[in-house]
Amino acid sequence: QVQLTESGGGSVQAGGSLRLSCVVSGYTDSSACVGWFRQGPGKEREGVAALRTRSGWTTYADSVKGRFTISQGNAENTVFLQMNSLEPEDTATYYCAIDNRKCGIEKASFRYWGQGAQVTVSS
Length: 123
Prior knowledge:
Blueprint: E1 3-7, E2 10-13, E3 18-25, E4 33-39, E5 46-52, E6 58-60, E7 68-72, E8 78-83, E9 92-99, E10 112-113, E11 117-122
Parallel strand pairs: 2-11
Antiparallel strand pairs: 1-3, 3-8, 4-5, 4-9, 5-6, 7-8, 9-10, 9-11
């Protein structure tokens, strides 16, 4: 059974930083794509960043380029999302997801999802 667990959410002031972690268990495909998504109040879930674990290839939404970084931990089952220069507009529940299909920030490409971590940015 595939399980994803996010951690590292919290409340920060604008301009601050947070690092989210996603720990994956039960997923055995070595060429996986891990994505981070977010859903703000009253908004659709949107893609933030994605990473192909075998190659290290990454992609980002325009709204977070230069501020967020997705990376793989030393433990192959962990992926991070480093978020710097946070803005109130970044307030959302953040989800990680994994699959082995087309790698990108389209939520339809992912079948397996975590429960989410709340990030709140105050002005």
